[in-house]
Amino acid sequence: xxxxxxxxxxxxxxxxxxxxxxxxxxxxxxxxxxxxxxxxxxxxxxxxxxxxxxxxxxxxxxxxxxxxxxxxxxxxxxxxxxxxxxxxxxxxxxxxxxxxxxxxxxxxxxxxxxxxxxxxxxxxxxxxxxxxxxxxxxxxxxxxxxxxxxxxxxxxxxxxxxxxxxxxxxxxxxxxxxxxxxxxxxxxxxxxxxxxxxxxxxxxxxxxxxxxxxxxxxxxxxxxxxxxxxxxxxxxxxxxxxxxxxxxxxxxxxxxxxxxxxxxxxxxxxxxxxxxxxxxxxxxxxxxxxxxxxx
Length: 295
Hints:
With 295 residues, this protein is an alpha+beta fold. The chain has helices spanning 10-61, 82-85, 93-105, 279-283, and strands spanning 137-138, 144-145, 150-155, 184-188, 213-215, 258-263, 268-272. The protein has a five-stranded mixed beta sheet. A hairpin with a 5-residue loop joins strand 1 and strand 2. The mean pLDDT is 89. InterPro entries: DUF1559, N_methyl_site, Pilin-like, Pre_pil_HX9DG_C.
């Protein structure tokens, strides 16, 4: 006698589909949470490597790099950003040599060929939470530029320059009398949606503000036409959005709840937006403020 094979009824099939949907609904947030934690950790590690490179630079040259190099007569590397100066200390020796050769050939305009650095993404300078940073991006004037999510802390704002990394600066760690463990070195801020702010190689803004460095109570300098519609500031440490140009004028990140900051002692901490009130004190190198860092 031949047996009969019983298939699924419609109701049973719907039940199975419903169970699978529930399992996916349970697992998907968990997967997303794990992925977010991984990118956050990698972003933190990148900033740690940048901080260590900065320490090696200071040990070798007895000063921190300028946020952007002043274009004085006789300057070998005008407009070069601080992350550009760190290349040989961040295991990017070949790119540094390419940059040195490019400056020898074209010393006055690092924003076009033969300068390859302006369009070369560097993994350690890119936060994996923002996929835009992993590739060169097309911006105004048909420029293709490499961007970074890490900016130096120039202090309170571009006029005060009371931090450690600002235009033409030559700050030493011994100048940080507030204590290196209580003074910010660099922090997170994704590039502007038009990619005109956030170039790591060189800065085209007058003072580097918003491009290679940023103040924690930054003002809109008015030197960048693309932020002319933004309020004058000061800007606080608050959550931002990728499609808002004005959010390029303050520190923030794509991580939930806050952003990573490197301190002058080489440590990296995640500061929540609720720490905004103490960030100005942390940004000055010799303000004499007494600050208690949150746990």
